# Entry
Amino acid sequence: MGYISVQQALDKKRGTVALRGWVYRESKLKDKIFIVLRDSTNIVQCVIKKNKVTEKEWVAASKLLIESSVVLEGSLKEDKRAPTGYEVEVSKLQVISYAEPFPITKEINEALLLDRRHLWIRSRKMTAILKIRSTVFGAIHEFFRARGFYEFQSPIIIPGGAEEGPTLFEIKYFDKKAYLTQTWQLYAESAIFALEKIYTIAPSFRAEKSKTARHLTEYWHAEMELPWVDLNGLIDYAEKLIRHIVKRVLENNQKEMEILNRDVKKLKPILTKSFARITYDDALKLLKKNFNIAIPWGKDLRTIEEDKLSRLFDTPVFVTHYPKEIMAFYKPRDPKNPRVALCFDLIGPEGHGELIGGSIRDLDIEELKRSLKSKGEKIEDYSYYLDTRRYGSVPHGGFGMGVERVVKWLCDLATIKDAIAFPRTPERFRP
# Structure
């Protein structure tokens, strides 16, 4: 008979089924053996009774350890004592591969789980996170394509940076020095003159020696760029994108949210409420008033301040108009207040920090050169970028979203390292 998935069997509820997968749990008694079988869809309890299978099958079942792979047939029935409410009484069993004793136990620590990540991704927790992550990627593509955006790719190997020089990964490019990209943005600003509305989801690299729960050295970056937009229009796109992602996750990943014990009620306001929009100056006042935290004007908001600020809202909150001097070179001064830039950060709720950063782009070549020089950058590395201001420049802007940060928030994870299959941090690039 044809094999079906575990979830299809659970949906069927009764009758003969043929399943294949891996042993998630096993318990051996004198005359019966219980295994919990898993595949990518779910788990189901199976019982192998000594008097119901051949001697060869019984001997094979007696040797099963966690993560052995098997195919089996049997009769499915309801059993409320079983983990997912159903049990398969096995009539046929074939062992495809016997596993050795599995090197992950309840006593294992985080470091060892990261060392054995290639095995730990089989866990129910990691499988649930990766399914939610897949939904997030699909939702991003769906959102932008439905609005007439083209997907555009840019180089990973670049001549110079876009954020800060010290956070660049330097590589040897034959006999020259090059870097791994921090963002797709500078090339995207060239491409909008051809395609106008564009987006990407691609790896970005930051050589930050940060060991916080929300930083990776390699992460997936969802970015967009478009012409003829002002700051409010840009923020509108960011808000609608987040709302669309949350909507799709709540539609498609209820089961995974349950596995993670995620309180989805905390995500539902995202679907109905407008996100708060405050200025940097407003943020300083709120921090002082509610938490007695005094931040000198001109200092960037740290993790602790972002966390405190997020506790005041049940949706993400936009913070706009940061001081120009602490911003990237391409963020322009606000004509109404030259001390601040036309930019924003989107701070996630529940203490999950910055999710999106974006800005209008500076069109003034001389201002761009001054900013680059002040940050120690070589003007010649940006000659192609400055050309975009020489030949038919138009008002434009864009933003970048850290996909792992969004996954961390949606799943309410303690660390961003669990929001990606194989995390890269200052102290880890294996497995």
Remarks:
- The chain has a mean pLDDT of 95.
